[in-house]
Amino acid sequence: MGQLGTYLLVLGLVLAGYGLVASAVGARTDRPALVESARRCAFGVAAVLVAANATMVVALLRNDFAVRYVAENSAIQTPVFYKALALWGADDGSLLLWNLILAGYIAAVALRFRRDRPSMFPYALSVLFTVQVFYLVLVNGPARPFGSLASPPADGRGPAPLLQNHPLMAVHPPFLYLGFIGFTVPFAFGVAALLAGDGIDQWVSIIRRWTLVVWCFLTVGLVLGALWSYSVLGWGGYWAWDPVENVALLPWLTSTAFLHSVMLQERRGMARLWNIALVIGAFALVTFGTFLTRGNVLSSVHSFTQTTVGPVYLIFLGLVLLAGFGLVAWRLPQLRTPASLDSAISREGAFVGNNVLLLAATAIILLGTTFPLVVQAVSNQQVTIGAPYFVSSVTPVFLLILLLAGTAPLLPWRATNRARALRRLRVPAGAAAVVMVATALAGVHKVATIAGFGLAALLFVTSAQEILSGLAIGRRGSRGRALRTFLRGRRRHAGLIVHMGLALLAVGVIASSSLAHATEVNLKAGQSTEFGGQLLRYQGLRTDQQPQRAVLTARVAVLSLAGRQVATLSPRMNLYPASTEPIGSPSINRGVFWDLYASVISLQNDGASATFRFYRNPGVNWLWFGGLVMALGGATAAWPARRRRSGRDQASAAERGRAPADAGAR
Amino acid sequence: MRARLTRRRALLLGSVVAVVAVIVGLLSTGLGRDPSVIASPLIGRAAPNFTLPQLTGGKLTLSKLRGQIVVINFWASWCAQCQDEQAALNQTWQKFQDSGVVVLGVDFEDTAGDARSYVNSAGVSYPVVEDAASRTALVYGLRGVPETFVVNQAGRIVDHVIGPISAGSVANQINSLLQKST
Predict the structure, then answer these.
(1) CB contacts < 8 Å between A and B, how many?
(2) What is the pTM of this model?
(3) Do B78 and A297 touch (CB under 8 A)?
(4) What letter does residue A640 receive in the DSSP assignment?
(5) From the CA atom positions of chain B, what is the Rg in Å?
(6) Torsions phi, psi of A213, nearest 5?
(7) Which of A58, A247, A45 is nearest to A139 (CA)?
(8) Which of A128, A514, A585, B151 is the most buried (most CB within 10 A)?
(9) Residue A279 — φ and ψ, nearest 5°?
(10) C-beta separation of B57 from B97 below 8 A
(11) Is A314 in contact with B24 (Cβ distance < 8 A)?
């Protein structure tokens, strides 16, 4: 198995190397046949990497401990499901998946441009193959997923306990990888436009939809990561401002900025330089995050330790920055744009504001994440930057983003028509005022919390109102059905749905971060405690011996103050061989408005008494739901449009082009 | 790329190169360190005593080895990195077993059968004990396997290595302890 995998990876590298050379030479010497062979080669690389990943999965399922990776990340007693997931449970295996996803994206590009090819396509293909060659070199030398063991052990170590504790491990990493690696495609086309020297405006319209898809994957990946953290780690929260979480958020912020500023370039020919810098920046941030996570620089829940690939990643990061921004410097004269803002209070002005705020958030988080590394480099002292820095500096920026998102869709392009915008602001502003007063009356005193709820209401109502009024206009004009009208203004409507999702997510974040309660109590079996208007009674401990672990389950009955049982919580402690520390699993009673969350901290006298931590977390489910709505909105915007042929549709498209306040963009 | 290299361009490109060099330079300083290494609080303290069953039968008590240098190596048959350091351990044992040095393997979270077959195939000839309930591992604050503690003749821990050892550095440590005692 190990041999087969090794050969497949060499074959993949050879094919990708050929693709790189053929597309680069084809682009420089203008030989379409070479480019075509490189394009076909993309499918070959993808097929080989499917085979390599399948080989590893088979080795894991068959307990082939002669493969070192299998011995280190799986065991005979590991359930089949988690055996398969061990493919991405550690660094070397996850690089196989990383390579596969990258090859998948390149194959998708090759398929999409099989006939109509923009002039920068050959260059884009060679950039894509360059990145693929880098990651294939990585698994052929510095990291060796199929490396063997001289004497195979009788049993393996098994996956890290935290990674075999929850089925979300099946979906969180793949979605995150789909998001991260997807940024290679916009980067490749951006760099290709710079290399080719033409199509400086064309590349953004090619790449907008790709970036939307990637953005959706990353959104889902981040939300699933937060959900995993909340459901598995047992500390009651979902975001710890851990460096590895931060570096995953950075490209999300940058690409969100790009998805807004791209409209400036498409509609007004503005922000050329800015857009290309954002796309290169997003890819550089992904590479930086990879270096930080896999380069053995950080100590974190996520960091893959014991690898020697750090310097290789760092060289690659240097090359990405040099090539990307060097090319920008080289092509600077072509990237200058003549158009300037007609008025600060206009849609264009709002997009600029949105970009400034998103980039400010990126800068704050990047600074906080890298500051400890810089201090250590300069003065050899250890400092940690914790949540308080991030929360206090990022909160105002995020509140301003809510304000801007809640008002910008009301502003027209170019000209300022304040009266009209103000008229459309009346209902949302009224809703925001009502929510703020209600929040204050309910006993909340934190200004940021009150403002946050108000701004979320403003954003939600503005977005809903704009969708509804768009549908109403459509009905008057064409007597069409609502769905059809919705689809006709799809880009704008989908964007507004994303904004509604953001409002829901914001409510979840604000509520859970500022209104949560927690308590830690020691209970004897049969004893109760009052928490958050309910009684929690410890009913005793149950022990289950499963093949791969021992599970100690504490049963906690949740009773109303009148004594009626309303729910049962069963937080657990899992004891895994090969791990000295027990791994806790929280138990959560999820609700629309709040969750009751229980963790076992310790057990005494074989469970005769136990120490629990209980949390009452409001609004957490709004966060997951809001994230889902955002991703669905993004997917709606990215869904390929049908080619319109009928005369009436063309006429209405032309009409939309003339009505800049309502059509087209969000 | 038909554009010419003007002075302005050269300056811009130069500044991009400089900024990237600074970023890469700063980040590269993080590479030399292993973030998992923390100074062990056990260093300088008396090695916690234990009595554990040997794989070959009989019991072994650490305190009875007082007066000798003891290299305590926590390992397991399922541990790939333990295979990496096996040659170094065997070499240390062969070189120093007649100079008052004991290499002692402590088998962690393993089955006796798997451990025995590993010991046979890997040519382990130094004593190996089983830490069945991981009590000793907990007392030593083990983070994982392999981990190695060097105990001097007075029974104090003088070194703690997380991850595979190298024969050279352990030999240096032993030689300096042997010199001090003479």
Answers:
(1) 122
(2) 0.89
(3) no
(4) P
(5) 24
(6) -60, -45
(7) A45
(8) A128
(9) -70, -45
(10) no
(11) yes
